[in-house]
Specification:
Oligomer: heterotrimer
Number of helices of chain B: 10
Number of helices of chain C: 13
Strand content of chain C: 15-25%
CATH architecture of chain B: 3-Layer(aba) Sandwich
Distance between the termini of chain B: 53 Å
Largest sheet of chain B: 8 strands, mixed
CATH superfamily of chain B: Thiamin diphosphate (ThDP)-binding fold, Pyr/PP domains
Order of helices and strands of chain C: EHEHEHEHEEHEHEHEEHHEEHEEHEHEH
Chains: A alpha+beta (about 60), B alpha/beta (about 270), C alpha/beta (about 375)
Number of domains of chain B: 1
Shape of chain B: globular
CATH class of chain B: Alpha Beta
Helix content of chain B: 25-40%
CATH topology of chain B: Rossmann fold
Shape of chain C: globular
Strand order of the largest sheet of chain B: 2-1-3-4-8-7-10-9
Largest sheet of chain C: 8 strands, mixed
Order of helices and strands of chain B: HEEHEHHEEEHEHEHHEHEH
CATH topology of the largest domain in chain C: Rossmann fold
Radius of gyration of chain B: 18 Å
Largest interface: B-C, 39 and 44 residues
Helix content of chain C: 25-40%
CATH class of the largest domain in chain C: Alpha Beta
CATH superfamily of the largest domain in chain C: Thiamin diphosphate (ThDP)-binding fold, Pyr/PP domains
Number of domains of chain C: 2
Chain lengths: ~60, ~270, ~375
Amino acid sequence: MSGAKARIEIIERYCKGCSICVEFCPTKVLAMDAFVVKVENADACIACNQCELRCPDFAIKVHKL
Amino acid sequence: MAYDYEKSIRPGKLPHIWCPGCGHGIIMKGLIRAMDTCNLDRNNTAVVSGIGCASRLPGYLDACTLHTAHGRAAAFATGVKMAKPEMTVLVVGGDGDGTAIGGNHFIHACRRNIDMTYIIMNNSIYGMTGGQFSPCTPTGALASTTVYGNPDPTFDIAKLAIGAGATFVARGTAYHAAQIDKLIAEGIQHKGLAVIEILDDCPTTYGRRNKFRSVIDMMKRLKDIAVPVAAAAKMTPEQLEGKVLTGVLHKEERPEYTEQYAEVIKRAQGV
Amino acid sequence: MAKKVALMQGNEACAQGALYAGCDFFAGYPITPSTEVAEVLSIELPKIGGKFIQMEDEIGATAALIGAALTGAKALDSTSGPGMSLKQELLGYACIAEIPCVIVNVQRGGPSTGMPTGPGQSDMQQAMWGTHGDHAAIVLTPASCQEIYEETVRAFNLAEKYRMPVQIQLDEICAHMRERVTLAEPGELEIINREKPSVSPADYKPYDATKGMVPPLATYGSGYRFHVTGLNKAADGFPTTKAELVDAEERRQIDKVMFNLADIQKNEEYLLDDAEVILFAYGSTSRSARYAVNELRKEGVKAGMFRPLTMWPFPDDRVAELSKQAKAIVCPEMNLGQMVREVQRVAQGRCTVAHIGRVDGEPINPGQIIDKVKEVL
């Protein structure tokens, strides 16, 4: 059963791979996949929205469930 | 739903030109949220900038945008606001643009208390030209023109703004992303000249030269040095050593310039 | 109804001309000998609901001028030598961004601070070439208070019509002398306002020149959201480095002036029909030149005067014709050789071209001109 509080959408063509979102995610939902971010642990998302707020590149959308 | 930033951005303009990890994009998102908070009509909002990385911001925003000459944003914006006071005027730019070449216009905009919101994205360096020191580069830091360490003292933008007469002065950081829109929105709603300094990072031209291993190190530094004003009040000078105050640093009411000029018109017309 | 006639200074005539043209915004910084333009407008503009702002420096003044012009204002800025040097960068900005505005330079003596209260005509090449990069310039050189009044109206008209900065080059003598000026009645002089876009905001491109060399200019706050930059740009106003777009834009911004010379250029020709020696003179110096022509005629010398009211774009064609007709063209100027260079360039050695230069703060007097004419003939 999924415990995710939000669905995270990554817009890969905007992502520049800075990894800010990965580093500061409190529940380690995100990880780097070569040069762009990917959702690795979707169930852990607590919908805190910090990754969307801190993404400088408009590449992350947090859709609350 | 996720926040709809795209409605405020001109079609086809993303991805933006800023480097990976540059905080300018975080600040632009904060600005968009603040514009929404204040229900700004983009037809009646001018966004004015000078030259530099930060000054490329207006090109992305779907508003009346004016990308001017190096340092002159505040003066162009003053012309817009003076000629059409009903417009909301936002000024954006970097630390070098605003406080070195544009320092004169900056302090006089503060002095006039003209109703504009000036967002300074302070990354402590001239990024676009490749990392020369700015008035906000820390003393001793390395830049392409201070390879032996920066001998220059540093401007405190907030103190400069307060001293020059700005009636709303706030400071945030790119790390504290959720606070940015709140500070900017309060600045827009304030009648008079509001200065919002957002401490930012430049991993490309500042971080690498100054032993930050990554963007993350620079973001962590912003997290570590920031102390909210309320918390700082309970701290000793020793505890505040090396820290930077964030939040609303100064707020006062003083006559606004275009309103003062409206009075001039009345007197001239004998009303 | 009797016409309104007033005794006024050249600087005041400039301010009055601006008001007649519809000027509703002034930004400036005090500098001798131009300050009276600002002083008069600080009194008159608020009376009509216009705006006057004294900025922190001359650069800021031109910046505010451009900002105001984008909101639809008809904007004026006045200055002198050192101030004009400071304005050069933003003059170029107004050229590339195609912003209608008028800048008055009351010329004084010397480089740098020079002689602030003395007259000069030594910013004539600067007016054309002072700002960096290729660009067109429209520069007017009136010579009497009446003419300053009317040419200021024309300056605004040209700025609005061609969507660019127009410079008025006065000199301290013209600016500070007092003469009788007949003020125009409403409707008497033509007033041109910039063309507004006919397309919807969604379709508007601020530099779309497909329908004419001067694209219509929308105003901020009118429902049109557009981008203005000092970078080379495409028709949509956004920066481009595409070679063909940059090239086309740069050329169009010069061509819009050079293809409309008949509309922009204006000269006075005084006793030129049979003239063998022609004085090329402008501004206050042309007043001495006219006197010299009259004196020379009395002595039987076939003298005449060619006096450009539009100095830039330079009247190449007419000066070329005159160089075929005349034995000599003599150029009196309060500088050490500026517009004479253009006369030499155009004359291509077909006639003698001589210069009378004076930079000691004194006007060039008719006797000096008469002596030079006799020397070259």
